[in-house]
Automatic annotation (TrEMBL):
Top-rank EC class of the record's enzyme: ligase
Originating gene: acsA_2
Residue ranges of domain AMP-binding enzyme C-terminal in the record: 471-549
Top-rank taxon: Bacteria
InterPro entries according to UniProt: AMP-bd_C, AMP-bd_C_sf, AMP-binding_CS, AMP-dep_synth/lig_dom, ANL_N_sf
Protein name: acetate--CoA ligase
PANTHER family associated with the record: ACETYL-COENZYME A SYNTHETASE, ACETYL-COENZYME A SYNTHETASE 1
Native source organism of the sequence: Filibacter tadaridae
Length: 572
């Protein structure tokens, strides 16, 4: 295949020579930039906040926050105090101990960031939850991890099925007019009087920090557990890939409910002592361009869906704002269409750098770097220190230009260390005990660039969010009208994929548009808005294997008008 490569834009990139760095680099060396390398005692909250508060960065802004008219700024010194206060509130008003699980379920706000970092100061594991989650999704995550506490708001607290969660002891509420009882604690009230000093818990580099639940093609969402050591890769990639310097203003648009929003929406930039912007609320073309101008964003990390929406909004809204501060733009979450890169060259006069990684990898793994040409359509090359290959189903490494499973050599610092409560599942990710198999199919060209081809499994990526078809199917089956359900991702020009459900109805139910809407709302209210099928098609029955498994492959073939392949296991 022929690709036109795009030129390198000169800048103060910290990764200057890719091949030289690959040859010379080791993670063990990278670890030496942290003082805990010698003591062995570490806490990511100390490294991300306190260390800078005790340095020349003390009065540097760590966090800008903007949501409508609420605009705030916190220096590293203030972040240290606010996170210490949060840690004291959590310690004094709960029975949380090192290694316990606490979830944070609230919209982006400074309090979310204070309390998340504060929790880590206690050595407690944080499970961030996206604010759109509904009762079913919350229950699955809190019960699987036997969470002891949750931080949320009065608007969201009703979605927590307290009666069904025997391990849940404390609910910290952040809001107004809160009535405390044995379980409910008014977080802001206690913040006022809490001490601003706190001795962080010193941890081991293999101790856990974050528990991000994510979807696979089968079963309930799985708890992907990350550890302190991930910080080595988060910092290194923040320098190499985000190219973050001291004077930058960095904006990662992701919510901390997803791994991008913690790894690069909190830790990467703060480990680097950077200044980051958090914008509350939902996507809006005008609002986003305005934020770039108002804060003078220089480095911007977003997702293809967002770029496609901005692209669709045309030049008009762009003209209202000065976007010339932007000097480095990156993307993650889904394939970045060459068309979007071309639009970026036109609109921002620069390249958009695609990055590939997953919840499980914990940090960026395959990326486009400032120092290398971009081949539009490629996710880039492995981060130095990462060994990525294409393997066949037996784990044999394939030569260039052959499609297969994208795999990474086990042992990179940010790699997940456990699937919560499910060691068999964890082991199933690795072939020959050596290669982590990602679930993505891809090929590598003769220059070492990787090209994404699709998911190997049935996982759906819709607007950059990962949705497991099984979860949606299970929820659909709870609706009284539904007897069978099969869910697939249907290609969509803006969202990448949309969720499409094929549904067979119980006798006596009429296949009406009203019923479709009712079923859609049922999933939305039970799981989350982004999990609800945008399209529902009624069928008399669904294709199944003889053992009764819905054949999503056949549904997909129906949808796309493709040959359905081997149907020998299909029940007829
Ligand atoms: C899946 C992981 C941590 C990043 C946010 C998503 C898809 C991710 C790319 C890319 C094509 C991509 C893959 C991957 N994906 N980045 N640059 N090009 N596909 O994390 O929710 O764990 O999803 O997102 O399919 O397996 P996630």
């Amino acid at each position: 295949m022929e690709f036109k490569t795009l030129p390198v834009v000169q800048g103060d990139y910290q990764l200057r020579d890719y091949d030289e760095t690959v040859a010379a680099f080791s993670w063990a060396d990278a670890e030496k930039q942290f003082s805990w390398h010698e003591s062995g005692k570490v806490n990511i909250a100390h490294e991300a906040v306190d260390r800078h508060a005790e340095s020349y960065r003390k009065n540097k802004v760590a966090l800008y926050y903007k949501d409508g008219n609420r605009k705030e700024a916190y220096t590293y010194y203030q972040m240290k105090r606010m996170t210490n206060k949060s840690a004291n509130v959590l310690r004094n008003h709960s029975t949380l101990e090192r290694g316990d699980r606490l979830f944070i379920f609230m919209p982006r706000s400074p309090e979310l960031y204070f309390s998340l970092i504060g929790t880590l100061k206690l050595g407690v594991i944080v499970g961030p939850l996206f604010e759109a989650f509904m009762e079913g999704a919350i229950f699955d995550r809190l019960s699987d991890s036997e969470a002891k506490a949750i931080i949320t708001t009065p608007e969201l607290v009703d979605r927590i099925p307290v009666d069904k969660l025997p391990h849940l002891k404390t609910i910290f509420l952040i809001g107004e007019n809160i009535v405390e009882d044995g379980m409910i604690v008014d977080f802001n009230k206690h913040m006022k009087n809490a001490s601003h000093s706190f001795q962080v818990e010193w941890m081991d580099k293999e101790d856990p920090t974050l528990l991000h639940y994510t979807s696979g093609s089968t079963g309930k969402p799985k708890g992907v557990l990350h550890v302190q050591e991930a910080m080595v890769q988060q910092l290194q990639t923040t320098r190499w890939v985000l190219d973050l310097n001291d004077e930058d203003i960095f904006w990662c648009t992701a919510d901390p409910g997803w791994v991008t929003g913690t790894a690069y929406g909190i830790f990467g930039p703060m480990l680097a002592g950077g200044t980051m912007l958090v914008v509350g609320g939902r996507f809006s073309t005008e609002g986003w361009y305005e934020a770039i101008e108002e804060y003078g964003v220089t480095v911007w990390y977003s997702a293809p869906t967002a770029f496609r929406m901005l692209m669709g909004a045309g030049e008009g809204p762009m003209k209202n704002n000065d976007l010339s501060s932007l000097r480095h733009i990156l993307s993650v979450g889904e394939p970045l269409n060459p068309e979007v890169i071309r639009w970026g060259m036109d609109a921002f006069k620069q390249r958009i750098h695609d990055t590939w990684w997953m919840t499980e990898t914990g940090a960026q793994t395959i990326c486009n770097f400032g120092c290398l040409p971009i081949k539009p359509g490629s996710m880039g090359k492995p981060v130095p220190g990462i060994e990525a290959v294409i393997v066949d189903d037996q784990g044999n490494i394939l030569p260039p230009n052959q499609m297969g499973n994208l795999a990474i050599k086990k042992g990179w610092p940010a790699m997940m260390r456990q699937i919560w409560n499910n060691p068999e599942k964890y082991d199933s990710y690795f072939v020959n005990g050596e290669w982590y198999v990602s679930g993505d199919s891809a090929y590598m060209d003769e220059d070492g660039y990787f090209f994404f081809q699709g998911r190997v499994d049935d996982v759906i990526m819709t607007s950059g969010e990962r949705v497991g078809p099984f979860e949606v199917e299970s929820k659909l089956l709870e609706h009284p009208a539904v007897v069978e359900a099969g869910v697939i991702g249907k290609p969509d020009p803006v969202r990448g994929e949309i969720i499409k459900a094929f549904v067979a109805l119980h006798e006596g139910y009429e296949p009406t548009d009203e019923l479709k809407e009712e079923i859609r709302q049922f999933v939305k209210k039970g799981l989350a808005a982004h999990s609800a099928p945008r399209e529902i098609e009624f069928k008399d029955s669904l294709p199944k294997t003889r053992s009764g498994k819905i054949m999503r492959r056949v549904l997909k073939a129906w949808e796309l008008d493709l040959p359905a392949g081997d149907l020998s296991t299909m029940e007829v």
